[in-house]
Write a structure and sequence with these properties.
By secondary structure, the chain is an alpha/beta fold. It folds into three domains: about 90 residues, 2-Layer Sandwich (Nucleotidyltransferase, domain 5); about 140 residues, Cobalamin-binding domain (Rossmann fold, 3-Layer(aba) Sandwich), CATH 3.40.50; about 180 residues, Nucleotidyltransferase, domain 5, CATH 3.30.420. It contains 17 helices and 18 strands. The strands form four sheets. A five-stranded mixed β-sheet has the order 3-2-1-4-10. β5, α2 and β6 form a beta-alpha-beta unit. α2 crosses α6, α8 crosses α16 and α13 runs parallel beside α15. The longest helix is centred in the C-terminal third of the chain and has 19 residues. It is globular, with a radius of gyration of 23 Å. About 45% of the residues are buried. The mean pLDDT is about 90.
Length: about 450
């Protein structure tokens, strides 16, 4: 069978292979999916990818499957592991952090100011994929970013380094890396914080994803995946962000939620309300991602259970403490009928906490005129749609009810989505794959996304 495209999603635990056809027509088709465990532990993720292809062929009832184009996203082996080093945390560091997270990074280290010897040692030990240096508005402070660039060049880690600080430093930064034979690992970007209260992160996000694709050899076997993928390889969270941005252009402002086994990711694509923007303490990016590393319904279930309280869980689920403990001991990544109510309750709490952390808030301050209202963080009050993707919110029977319950919990100080926000489910669970596909086939990706969301 010959088709237009295969898109692999190589996760930390599961590898998915999605098949698509008729991408250049008015009627693009999603053909089906194949699944297999990700085989990092076997020393080669290609094993899991081949198993997923075999499963896909079985599901499609074909003996041969040939694609014109092959794409991939990956979060295997910890995904895109980055560190960010800037000048002032609430300014240039925050801007660099927003660029990294929006590109799909897993931030392992964030620092402000000139790096000391202990921080340099930590950078050495992190096994990073990319380092980002920021600092100083254009034609402003130069020393911090220059010193950090020099120190990182001298360590000679031979991994990609993106410089996204004061553009006056470009020539000296290039000299530091040339002097240490690291010039092939240096990437110069526009300043992520070129002026006070101005964020410009999109150019840097594109560089991060391009660098990731070029250097993705950290997961065992990923060098072989590069050989068999003819098109883009980007971080899976970055692919979800690409899909969210494409969808926002067609539907309007939205939030995408992915409650996973290890983390809960929130992607928001919205300018927010004009009246809120006028009172913002600091700027926010148009497209923002937060990742909550403590909110996963499998690997990090114990944190969520403790946040709810076992006594409360027993009362809500009508279980004895012994029955609850037995459920927890036998907890599986794919819940059975007995486990479903517990998994749904954990999913609700993970989403509730994550959306509150992502949302901005109103704050009160006092000056000579009395109490004044300001806003900080991302304004989600103008959002029209909640897009649910990921395993939990696309597969749990009561997913719509879970989302509605979270949206109903209003706090007048939080700039969170309204209870009237429309809920859309990624029923085919293909949003990440379509984010990758959108790099070359945006029109087909958008149509397929709307089909999965059942809005055509």
């Amino acid at each position: 069978m010959k088709i237009d495209a295969l898109v692999a999603e190589i996760g930390s635990t599961t590898t998915i292979l999605n098949a698509f056809d008729n991408l250049d027509s008015d009627n693009p088709r999603f053909l089906g999916s194949g699944f297999a465990p990700t085989t990092v532990e076997l020393g080669d993720v290609i094993v899991g990818l081949n198993q997923a292809k075999a499963n896909l062929m079985q599901n499609l009832k074909v003996s041969e499957l040939v694609a014109k184009e092959t794409f991939a996203s990956s979060s295997a082996a910890g995904g895109l592991k980055m560190s960010v080093h800037g000048l002032v945390y609430d300014m240039t560091v925050k801007a660099a952090k927003e660029a990294a997270l929006g590109a799909g990074a897993n931030l392992k280290m964030i620092t402000s100011g000139i790096l000391d010897e202990y921080q340099i040692d930590e950078i050495k030990n992190q096994k990073l994929n990319i380092i980002m240096i920021s600092g100083g508005v254009d034609f402003g402070e130069r020393k911090t970013a220059l010193e950090n660039a020099r120190k990182i060049a001298e360590v000679k880690l031979s991994i990609p380094v993106i410089y996204a600080g004061n553009i006056q430093n470009h020539n000296l930064v290039k000299k530091y890396f040339l002097d240490n034979n690291q010039e092939n690992y240096l990437y110069l970007s526009n300043n992520v914080y070129p002026k006070i209260d101005v964020l410009e992160v999109e150019n840097t996000r594109k560089i991060i994803q391009n660098v990731f694709e070029k250097h993705i050899v950290q997961a065992p076997g990923m060098e072989h995946v590069k050989e068999m993928i003819s098109e883009s390889i980007i971080p899976t969270p970055g692919a979800v962000m690409e899909a969210s941005k494409l969808l926002q252009k067609s539907l309007g402002d939205l939030v995408t939620v992915d409650v996973g086994g290890a983390t809960t990711d929130i992607h928001s694509v919205t300018e927010g309300k004009e009246e809120i923007n006028k009172i913002l303490i600091a700027p926010e990016p148009f497209a923002k991602r937060t990742v909550e590393g403590d909110l996963g319904v499998y690997i990090n279930k114990d944190y969520i259970i403790n946040a709810i309280g076992k006594d409360k869980l027993c009362k809500e689920l009508k279980l004895s403490i012994e029955e609850l403990e037995l459920l927890i001991r036998n907890y599986q990544p794919i819940p059975d009928e007995k486990q479903l109510p517990l998994t749904e309750r954990l999913t609700e709490t993970a989403f509730d906490i994550a959306i509150k952390r992502h949302s901005g808030r109103l704050v009160y301050m006092y000056n000579s005129s009395g109490k004044v209202t300001y806003a900080e963080g991302k304004d989600l009050s103008n959002v029209l749609y909640i897009i649910a993707t990921g395993g939990a919110l696309t597969r749990l029977p009561n997913r719509d009810i879970i989302i509605k319950r979270v949206l109903s919990k209003q706090n007048e100080l939080l700039l969170s989505p309204s209870p009237k926000t429309k809920i859309l489910i990624d029923n085919s669970y293909i949003m990440a794959s379509l984010g990758v596909l959108s790099k070359k086939h945006p029109e087909a990706a958008l149509k397929l996304m709307k089909q999965s969301l059942e809005i055509i």
